[in-house]
Write a structure and sequence with these properties.
The chain is built from 10 helices and 13 strands. It is an alpha+beta fold. The strands form 2 sheets. Strands 2, 3, 7, 8, 9, 10, 11 and 12 form an 8-stranded antiparallel sheet that branches. A 5-stranded mixed sheet has the order 5-6-4-1-13, covered by helices on one side. Helix 1 packs parallel to helix 2, helix 1 packs across helix 3 and helix 2 packs antiparallel against helix 3. Bound molecules: adenosine-5'-diphosphate and the ligand N[C@@H](CCOP(=O)(O)O)C(=O)O. One of its GO terms (molecular function) is homoserine kinase activity.
Amino acid sequence: MTIKVFAPASIGNVSVGFDVLGMAVTPVGDQLLGDIVEISAAVTDVSTLSLSGEFANKLPGDPKDNIVWHCLELFNKELINSTKSVQPVDLVLEKKMPVGSGLGSSACSVVAALVALNEYYQKPFNDSDLLFMMGKMEAQISGSLHYDNVAPCFLGGMQLMVTDTQVITRSLPTFDDYYWIMAYPGIEMSTKEARDALPKQYSRQDLISYGQTLATFIDACYRNDPKQAFANVVDVVAEPYRQSLLPKFIETKQYLLANGASAAGISGSGPTVFVVCENKEIAEQLSNYLTENYLQSPTGFVHICKADTQGARLVS
Ligand SMILES: Nc1ncnc2c1ncn2[C@@H]1O[C@H](COP(=O)(O)OP(=O)(O)O)[C@@H](O)[C@H]1O
Ligand SMILES: N[C@@H](CCOP(=O)(O)O)C(=O)O
């Protein structure tokens, strides 16, 4: 029996909710933007991990340093803790997501691996157990615990991290008519380094702005008021300190907002930019602009996306 799980790209923070808001995205059409993990019974009596896909060559040379391998180790430990027996498995990671891209690349691998393992063992763990494990793995990679990529990648849609540690995340209504452009310029930005660039403390004014814009955004989501929601996609926590690390970001954002974008910002820790568009025509125009002006290497790409409402899923 072979099981294959796909886990989608996501926008960490969505600008207005640093570390507490994230949204999964999927390109319009039938392309899959995310990672795939395949699992089957091991051919020998030891587990293995092999890699394929466009960005496999960007991952650590030793598969045991891969986050997917760490997921296997954690999952096995949890199985043993719940007195279940562990079997050797062969894992294959199809690394379709660029690393250090701001598209939740490590989250895609973590989520696909843990969901595939859970399916293989016929669901010994529930969604909360899995989410805890996903958070642990993401923290190991980025240096601190944040669920804003793993939660939407796993569950789909827009997710708000809540203070109840048993619940962790709640789904928010998304604006289904809107398009989200994802423009990855083809350069790397380490999440850990981008987190280190942030101040340790913020002013009272920033604190008030953060609370007010996030609260207004959530209120607008529930009232289905896209104009108010997207007017509040403002980042006082990360963007002011990260934008200078991202070549062409400042002038690109200015152009996008002056030419029809409802909102734009850094996806996760960058360098990917996300752009919210109220219709397909604007999305196509701005996506052409980004292709011509924001891409900086041949591995860059631009996708017109919608919110991915499914999250991690079995694929054939
Ligand atoms: N399967 C994997 N997917 C992505 N990164 C991985 C994986 N396994 C190990 N890594 C390492 O984890 C780090 C991920 O970097 P990070 O900046 O957090 O990426 P991203 O923001 O795209 O998730 C890199 O050093 C990368 O080599
Ligand atoms: N909230 C995190 C999100 C990081 O997302 P990634 O896609 O860059 O890993 C942050 O902004 O540091």
